[in-house]
Amino acid sequence: MSSSFPRPKRAGEDFASTDYNDGGEDSSEHKKPRFDLRNPSALAADAPEEDAILDADEIGRRGQRVRRKAVNLEGYESDSENEGFSAHIEEKSARKRAQNDTEDDDMFAELQEDFGEEEVDGDEVIHKNKKSVRFLRDDEIEGQVASSKSGGALHVDLGKGASHVDEEESGSEVGEEERARVDDVVDEELGAGGKKKHAPLLDAFNMRTEQEEGRFDDQGNYVRKAADPDAAYDSWLEGVSNKDIKKAKEAAEQRDAERKEKDRMNDSILTADVLKTIIINLERGETILEALARLGKGLHRKPKWQNKKNKKNAAQDIEMTDEDPNEVARRKAIDSLTGAADILMGRGQIDIYDTEREMLTRQYRNDTGEDWVDPPASGVTEQGPAMWEYRWSDARDGGDAHGPYDSVMMDSWKNAGYFGEGVQFRRVGDSGPWTGTVNFL
């Protein structure tokens, strides 16, 4: 008889999560299929899946609620399990070390019996037990001739009934291809050895060259050395023969010897003499740099108009040569200044080129104890004929002075009509005013 009361309604989630399998195995036959709430087209799993991602999904966990009055122990677990695991690992490592020590004692027991109570290096014994390669020394390779040298050329002369060896340099510039090439006039049976010139070179009857590039082991195998990673930086030496290297070495040794001899000569010169050489060539309040600039202006340069005018007749050009006394004196003064300044710079005076004449005279007095006295004849311009300089009065070229030039050249330019109106002249070394009329001769 059916009940007249309506059936109570339940939530779909709770109904889907209800387990009807509590009655035992017999109830599995009457179990209704359940569908997954997240995917209604598939059946729900019989057992909850152990997946971290699925456990984090709150939709499928609505039926699995925490019991009432349950205590949350998350974060308060004991570390006894981890401590026990670490202790187990340490105990296992200790047993393994003890076992290795026992094996080492057994290994060295026989050696100690043979050699007594002497200490035995365990690392050395273990290294010997491993597979190792031993390389042969030069004296262990049999059949070598230590006195044999490479570089000799063998010439075969059957006409004389004997062959001879000519000593040639191993670093000859002739390549191996040229030596191996056989000419038409050479007998094929003799080969390249019958050549009169550039015959093949002989190798030394030893392994000295091979030992430089590699080593032989005790089994007779040849093991080459590893390639040098820095060999690429020496590529500029390709094509350079031993003869060129020898010449360069001799030239470097000669330059080194000359430098040492020059240093000994400079060390023998007193500082007072060096200061005297500099002071003589300086004017009042002038430095070495200013003096070099002043003396550098004395180099004679012909104007462009003179080169164009006398282009057809080069014999009429007035040229300054090294034999000119003023030019020689000027170059000599420049060499003296630079040489003396380099000596003082080598002795620690790095600012010598910027030191004024008065400071040098004071240094001279401190070194010698005597005051500096100017010689009666000083200055380069007073030696030889008078020197002149000129400028344009309208300052067309910036108002710079041109010169110095000697009297002969200035007179020739005047007679040629180069100097017109607006040109002023003055003698070199004269601090007076510029003048427009002057007699050069």
Automatic annotation (TrEMBL):
Biased composition of type Basic residues is found at: 303-312
Q: Which residues form the signal peptide?
A: none
Q: Where is the composition biased (Acidic residues)?
A: 47-56, 166-176
Which Gene3D superfamilies does the UniProt entry name for this protein? 3.30.1490.40
Q: Cite the GYF domain residue spans from the record.
A: 385-441
**GO cellular component terms attached to this protein's record:** U5 snRNP
Query: Where is this chain compositionally biased, Basic and acidic residues type?
Result: 27-37
Domain of life of the native organism = Eukaryota
Q: Per its record, how is this protein called by name?
A: GYF domain-containing protein
SMART domains, A to Z: GYF
Region: Disordered; residue ranges are 1-56, 73-107, 144-194, 303-326
Family annotation (PANTHER family): CD2 ANTIGEN CYTOPLASMIC TAIL-BINDING PROTEIN 2, PROTEIN LIN1
